[in-house]
Amino acid sequence: MRHALENHRLSISINEIGAELASIVNLDSGREYVWQADPDVWGSSAPVLFPIIGMLADGKTMIDGQEYRIPKHGMVRNNPNLELFYHSEDRLTFRLCYSEETLKLYPYKFDFRITYRLRNEHIIVYHEVMNVDDKPMFFNLGAHPAFRVPFIDGEDYSDYFLRFEHKEAAGRYSVLPNGTVGDVTRPVPWQDGNILPLTHELFAKDALVFKDLSSRSITLESKITGPVLKMDYAGWTHLGIWAKPNGDFVCIEPWIGLADTPATGGQFMNKEGLIELEPGQTYEMSYDIKVL
Fold it and tell me: A GO term (biological process) for this protein (predicted)?
């Protein structure tokens, strides 16, 4: 089931399963911005990543001396148990609370909420993580929205690029064959320091993972027709850029944390970027998509 919001500029819809952003339509042009989850290529549109990002090494981790098997990208993605918690004229909030089933995968009691707010040409996505346990809880958090490329019929994938807010010299960390992240950087084909041209070959070895960018906003642009949309992600510490090599989309993924790395050593508490939240406290983080 999908839930929708609309204003004078845009219409958006959210899948109740996984609370994924499934559609952004420009009401003037009728154009769709979000990848439409073709299952023959990649059957998602915008997974929500909690309490892990990516893969655990060997699919498992140790927490307080016990083994847990948290699925790839965590427990919100593809989850049919989210409820529509709040619906108003300009926002939708979805909620997932801990259960006996989640405790078998992840031993913390949480109340997770994600809100989509539609304001003029902006879609603002708010995350709230509440610790309802009697002990500190630890987690990573991430977003994974996929945008159509090419956006205009008749253009090619290679007509598009990502414009970073600042000039960058950062290298990319590699995603290893087991889905974890390596600890050695590889060069990035920057142009003019802040332009990343899009090609299908760019993703032949999975995502580009960044830990040390100075930019906190990225614009998706066409060399032919100009800017498409802008994402602002102030406060997020890591970034992934990804697509399937045969997929006509690009994911711009703000993260706090990473998949397992060699330094994790199978111990959850060693995961990079881990957020610690005290009992009774709430963690909040958001990002903003602006249609241009």
Answer: carbohydrate metabolic process
Given this model, what pLDDT does residue 99 score?
97
Strands 172-175 and 238-242: unpaired
Total domain count for the chain? 1
Given this model, what pLDDT does residue 270 score? 97
> How does DSSP classify residue 105?
H
Dihedrals φ, ψ of 159, to 5°?
A: -80, -5
Burial class of residue 88 (count of CB atoms within 10 Å of its CB; 0-12, 13-18, 19+): exposed
Supply the DSSP string of 12-62, one letter for each residue: EEEESGGG-EEEEEETTT--B-B----TTT---S--EEBS--S--GGG-EE
| Domain limits for position 233 | 2-291
Model confidence over 82-117: pLDDT tens digits?
A: 999 999 999 999 999 999 999 999 999 999 999 999
Task: Tell me what pLDDT residue 246 has.
Answer: 96
CATH number at residue 140: 2.70.98.10
Q: How far apart are CA 207 and CA 205, in angstroms?
A: 7
CA separation for the pair 116, 221 (Å, rounded): 24
Q: Lowest-confidence range among 156-170, 173-187, 206-220?
A: 173-187
